[in-house]
Design a protein that fits this description.
The protein has about 475 residues and is an alpha/beta fold. Helix content is about 25%, strand content about 15%.
Length: about 475
């Protein structure tokens, strides 16, 4: 086998072709052969390379070892190991050869240049060279389309993102550090026709109907840094192939925490415990064995069920959801029943159903009357799920208590009866992400845009067929 030598090209240690191809035995550094990728027995088999020393023949270098975790790719050098710095080796004749560093983690990098080397201009294999803009190949590839591993995306520029979030919400959703992260992935634009991504949130002004979509011909994705997208999108969005993502799963977590806390307060009768003075020991209520009826196995409903199941109180869980099978309910740790049975057997009824025509006044006067005396109604979903007038009658007599984070209408007008009842607690729709929690929505939205740019699967994708039965 013909011997090979190592030559220096922009700081890389590369083996040259066999000596017999050149009159003097060594290829000049400017020869095209010196630009070949790392290959040959010296690199593939961990043998000994040779460095040329003028007038002294060949001097052996240290053995070139296979880097840890590297994968040998035929004819293209070592693939899979990160770039490691190289060390300059002196020869007795004054020439300099670049070789691998002496540190244990230094590896053979035949296919990657050092940080100071000029960046290659990428183009599709077999295609003609293209003009470049600021070092990037000019192409027409969808910036969200996945590209083969190991090959950089062929895009002209980062995608443009258009913000449509309320002015009072924007600083909380996108604080400066998140804006900086977003700028590394995209470029902001104030022009809707240039927008590739629409980033929305609470207080958005756009409703994506046909006329608005006609003004956004480049739009490829809508990322909603909030919960429901029902007030934002229309079927035309999916018909045009636009991706839709929502942070509803992130917003569901604080709602589930809030609801679980209310269930604990309801089980201990916190609203009425001290109305008639300091209660005696026998009059106090505990949580163990309390029957809780969960209406709706939504994101929040499932999280509430999981939290109650994990508690030490031994709650008895009943579930009503027309889209859930008995086996699935049993896997959740609940018993699947109809709405009448749930109201009859539950001391606490918590609502987590979407706002649909068939769920309006799901708890009407008839169902509220089925809840045992001393029971509690909790609503952190939508105000229209409860008949407000019927609830007023039940709570005014003291038969039922109520925790309402949502109402119908919302907000309640001043002087409304529910605001003055001592056994009713009305909160101003605060169960979802609030204050410092809103940052979670922005973090998810920025991460989701990163997945879009890299062509990865979206974690919060909303499909059209799911919208009809979601909140």
């Amino acid at each position: 086998m013909a011997a090979q030598c190592a030559v220096s090209v922009r700081g890389m240690l590369l083996p040259a072709p066999p000596f017999h191809r050149f009159p003097q035995g060594l290829p000049p550094l400017h020869h095209p052969a010196a630009r070949c990728r790392a290959r040959g027995p010296a690199l593939r088999a961990g043998g000994r390379g040779f460095a040329p020393a003028p007038h002294r023949g060949l001097r052996p270098l240290a053995p070139l070892k296979r880097p840890s975790g590297a994968v040998l790719k035929r004819r293209t050098g070592w693939i899979g190991a990160p770039f490691q710095p190289v060390r300059r080796l002196r020869t007795s004749g004054g020439a300099a050869i670049w070789g691998p560093g002496r540190s244990p983690e230094a590896g053979v990098q035949g296919a990657q240049p050092p940080p100071t080397a000029a960046k290659p201009r990428y183009r599709a294999r077999g295609s003609a060279p293209e003009k470049t803009v600021k070092g990037r190949a000019r192409g027409k590839t969808n910036p969200f389309h996945p590209h083969p591993p190991g090959h950089p995306p062929n895009v002209t520029a980062p995608p443009h993102v258009f913000l449509d979030i309320g002015s009072d919400t924007t600083p909380a959703v996108l604080p400066p550090e998140l804006r900086t992260r977003l700028r590394t992935l995209t470029e902001f634009t104030d022009s809707l026709p240039r927008a590739d991504i629409l980033l929305t949130g609470w207080g958005h002004a756009l409703h994506l109907n046909e006329s608005v979509l006609d003004r956004a011909p480049r739009l490829k994705a809508v990322v909603h840094a909030a919960g429901s997208v029902k007030g934002l999108v229309t079927p035309s969005v999916w018909q045009r192939g636009i991706l839709v993502s929502s942070a509803a799963d992130i917003n569901a977590r604080p709602v589930a925490d809030f609801t679980t806390a209310l269930i604990l307060l309801a089980a201990k009768k916190a609203l009425s415990a001290g109305r008639s003075g300091w209660p005696g020991f026998a009059a106090r209520r505990g949580t163990d064995g309390t029957a809780v009826g969960v209406v709706g196995a939504s994101r929040i409903g499932r999280r509430v069920t999981a939290r109650l199941r994990a508690a030490d109180s031994g709650y008895r869980l009943l579930l009503h959801d027309p889209y859930v099978s008995p086996d699935e309910a049993a896997h959740m740790g609940a018993e699947l029943v109809d709405i009448h049975t749930l109201c009859t057997k539950s001391t606490i009824v918590t609502l987590h159903a979407p706002q649909l025509p068939e769920t309006r006044h799901l708890l009407d006067a008839q169902h509220l009357a089925l809840i045992p005396a001393g029971g509690t109604v909790i609503n952190t979903a939508r105000g229209s799920l409860i008949d407000t007038d019927a609830l007023i009658q039940e709570c005014a007599t003291g038969r039922l208590d109520a925790f309402l984070d949502v109402t119908d209408p919302e907000p309640l007008p001043p002087g409304h009866p529910l605001l003055s009842l001592p056994n009713v607690l009305v909160t101003p729709h605060i169960a979802g992400a609030q204050g410092s929690e809103i940052r979670r929505l922005g973090e998810f939205a920025v991460d989701e845009i990163g997945r879009l740019v890299r062509g990865e699967r979206l974690l919060g994708e909303v499909r059209q067929e799911e919208l009809a039965r979601s909140a």
